[in-house]
């Protein structure tokens, strides 16, 4: 939730900075690397170096993140902050499906039941059903937003997998991924004339620094730390709060007041996230002949592994981890 709050500020900072999309995407990552490198060195001394496969997976994840940023930032200027933020949240489907097909992690039935409500609520929040807003949307912007969402889901999956394979190391993978994303966005910027570093005012530089620190470093450290302790459907559902928060912040900062339909959509998204995470479930009593789950061990990342005393030891994809 903390990571989603930080990410929700990103679209507003992008608009306030007023820098072109390609330059914004590149500087967001490049400036964040400057902050992450000393933190990564400190983690390396405490936890040890990231393995070569870990560096490779982080670099691949960074390519997905770079595509996400480049496409999403461009979509903001074409379809607006609200709709673009909604479109990238197709990750709510991408992340669980990747975990299902690659890691064989099952999808909870309550998540499948809540998924139509999530998608409906997101469409309301983004103003997709608002006929008056049709003039500001273009096919290109919508496709860019969907491309960003697909890359977003791939990035979340790859980083979560890396965190599970190398517990206790969060900052180093993020540093490699952010550096890879900076290179990716710089290469993609060449197709639009390249990054434009001249003519950026002091105010815009300050906003870009805040975007890098808050929307990249702090946000992803929180998300990566939390996603390793949650099943993919929970992570994907919680991040859906991002467009709702972005809607509220846009009203407060940019005076972009939501319509009634958008407010209704926000309520639907919050309710659907609650349903998907089992907040409305009854507490079930322990069945006769079974005991409470007993802790097996606590790993280097501080994650306590459980098993039922009458059942087998857990495997990846079983239970809450």
TrEMBL record:
Basic and acidic residues bias: start-end ranges: 297-308
Topology with respect to the bilayer: Multi-pass membrane protein
Residue ranges, annotated region (Disordered): 286-321
Residue ranges constituting the EamA domain according to the UniProt record: 2-125, 140-276
Spans traversing the lipid bilayer: 21-42, 54-75, 81-102, 114-132, 138-158, 170-192, 204-223, 235-255, 261-280
Annotated Pfam families: EamA
Keyword Cell membrane: yes
Main location: membrane
Protein localization: Cell membrane
Keyword Transit peptide: no
Keywords: Cell membrane, Membrane, Transmembrane, Transmembrane helix
Family label: Belongs to the EamA transporter family.
The name this protein goes by in its record: DMT family transporter
Source species: Brevibacterium salitolerans
